[in-house]
Amino acid sequence: MPRDASLPPLAAGVFAMLLAGCASDGGARPASGGRSPGGTVKEAGSAKTEAARVNTELGQKYMAQGKLELALEKLTRALQNDPRYVDAHTVIAVLYETINEQALAEEHYRRATQLKPKSGSEANNYGAYLCKIGRYDEAATYFERAITDPFYQTPVVALTNAGTCAIKGGKFDAAERDLKLALDRGPDNAEALFQMAMVLYRKDDFFRARAFIQRYESLGQPSPESLLLGRNIELRLGNADAATDYTRRLRQNFPESEQARSLDAPSSS
Q: Which residues fall within 8 angstroms of residue 4, CB to CB, at 6 or more apart?
C-alpha cells in the first residue's frame, strides 16, 4: 500500500524551513551585557532540531543500504535530540515495521499524527499501517483526515489507499467511491486502476472490471496479480480464448510467482 514515507527522501521543504529557522535564530544579538528573553533557549532548540534532522537523514540512508542497526542508532539519537521531530518518528516507524517490532512501529506512526494532527502525509502513513494490521475502520478515519487536508500534495495516494483498504474490509461500495475519486484526480494511476478492476470483479460487475484491467494494461505495467485478475474476469465473461491468453502470459512472464502456481490448484478463479 502506497505511503508517503516508506523510505522517501525527507521532504526538502521541511529541511528548508528548519534551516531558515536556524538562520533567524542566529541573527543580531543585543549589546554587551544584555540578553534577549528566551534567546538561549531558542538557539539550543534550533541546534537540537538540526541535529535531529541530520541523524534522521543518516538513519534513512543506512536503511536504504540495509544497515538496520546503524539506522536504528541514528534514528534513536535523532529522537533524543528532538523528541518532537516528526520525520524521525515516521522513519523509525518504518524501520520498526521492517524488523517486525509492530508495537513500536504503531507508537511512532501514531506519535507523528499527534505532533502534526492536520497533516495529510502523517495521517496517510498511519492509516496505511493500520490497514496492514487489519484495523480497517480505524484506518479509514486517518485516510479521511489525509484527504481533507487542503495542503496535502498527494491526496490520490490516500484515496487509493482508502479504496484498497475498504476492499480488504469488505466495504465494496466505499472502495469504489474512493477509487473513482482517485481516478478522477489521476486517470493513469496504475494502482487505482488495478484496485478498481478488483472491486468491480468482487461486485460481479465483470464488464466494467474488464475495462479497468485493460486500462491498467495500457500503461504497460503487467504484474502477476493483474494477469491473474484479467484471466479470472474473462472466465467469468465466458471468453475462454482471452482467459487462455492471460494464462499463457502469466506462466511465461512470471513462472515462479504465487499467481502462476495457483493455476495448478483445484480452483483458481
A: 121, 124, 125, 154, 157
What is residue 264's predicted lDDT score, i.e. its pLDDT?
Answer: 85
Q: How high does pLDDT run on average in the chain? A: 87
Q: Count the neighbouring beta carbons within 10 Å of the beta carbon of residue 81.
A: 19
**What is the tens place of the pLDDT at every residue in 196-205?**
999 999 999 9
Contacts for 227 with CB less than 8 Å, ≥ 6 apart: 246, 249, 250, 253, 254, 259
Question: What is d(CA 135, CA 110) in angstroms, rounded to the nearest whole number?
Answer: 14
- The 10s digit of each residue's pLDDT in 78-108 is 999 999 999 999 999 999 999 999 999 999 9
C-alpha dist (Å) from residue 26 to 8, 16, 57, 121, 125: 30, 15, 23, 30, 34
Cα dihedral 62/115/144/198 (nearest 10)? 20
Amino acid letter, 198: M
Displacement of CA 97 from its chain's centroid (Å): 13
Cβ atoms within 10 A of the Cβ of 182, count? 27
3-state helix/strand/coil string of 35-66: CCCCHHHHHHHHHHHHHHHHHHHHHHHHHHCC
Handedness of CA 89, 93, 94, 98 (dihedral sign): positive
Dig out the grid coordinates for 89 from the structure. 518518528
What is the C-alpha to C-alpha distance for residues 90 and 9, in angstroms, rounded to an integer? 12
Burial 118-155 (b: 16+ CB within 10 A, else e): ebbbbbbbbbbbbbbeebbeebbebbebbbebeebebb
pLDDT digits (tens, 9 = 90+) for 60-82: 999 999 999 999 999 999 999 99
Residues of the chain with pLDDT under 70: 3-44, 266-269
